[in-house]
Amino acid sequence: MRTLEIFWRFLLLGLSSFGGPVAHVGYFRLAFVERLGWLDEARFGRLLALCQFLPGPSSSQLGFAIGLLHGGFWGGLAAFVGFTLPSALLMLGFSLYVVGDSALIHGAIEGLKLLAVVVVFDALLGMGRSFAATTQTRAIALLSATTLWLFGGAAVQMGVLVGAALFGTLTLRSQAPSETQKEGSLGKIALVVFALLFVALDFIDERIAAPFYHAGSLVFGGGHVVLPLLQESVGEALSHERFMLGYALAQAVPGPMFSFATFLGAELAPDAPIFGALIATLGIFAPGFLLILAFGRSWERYSTMPRLSGALIGVNAAVVGILLAALYDPIFLSAVHSTQEMALAVLGYLALSSKKVPIVLLVLAFGLLGIINQSYM
Description:
It is a single chain. The chain is 80% helix and 0% strand. By secondary structure, it is mainly α. The protein has one domain.
């Protein structure tokens, strides 16, 4: 029953979580920390920090880690399937059938982008109270955001996280007691499987499985950063127009942007598009999940040790800064284009923060408002 509940909760998020990886963090925090209480703020922060440092789709890894924590291996698998299934099916459908330019769909997407502003702002306030509550951590958060606004890019984001970790190691300390957890053999097995697949897939399927697995193993920074890796490895097999169409559609659907792989897998296997889509999807997500299995428990143990807890405090403060930077660009800039939309965002935040309005109702309301607005344009 617990596995089914995890699947259902993540399926709802997979149907409604627009806005990209940063917005997904807000949706996860709202659902699993504030409303369901599956984990506390501190543990959520530790998992989020781990996912920032590992290659792969960070928001999907965070969802997998939450499912793993709440329901074991099958819970993690249920979280992945639930969160990914809606976008994967949509991307497969886009590949198989002609994509029409629907004003209704475009309007709903624009409305849900506005909801993403509300959810990320709520997450920013909540995480700021927990992870940027002192003068030093607030300074780390603001410097992180400023650096990303000035320079941007995945490499700069990783540099911000590393710098915050080093600063935290030298100057910050946590009073939290150390947690003890058994290492277990699953982590070691997962790491061995990760390494074996990285090498062996070149000999098994170098056309679909290998390039997508390698992309999932090497990319840091989320969906946008995977574009050049995939373009280099499989872009030559498709026309540039078809490749970019799939990438644009991946940004428009809810759930993980890595579902772009579903579209590409179907395109690369025209004789068996469903099989190609499945292989590509599993290929690009599997490395990140294997790494969560490999390092999740040791991270949970070591991150509470006094000597290393300062690094985690610094990283969590930097994550608040990353949320602040992304809230403005691209989330706010892509969603709010008028004073009316700004007013709707404020009203949406008031409804969300009241904790009396279900998130599903907000999703329906903002989608409908987007359709109405589109019909009058």
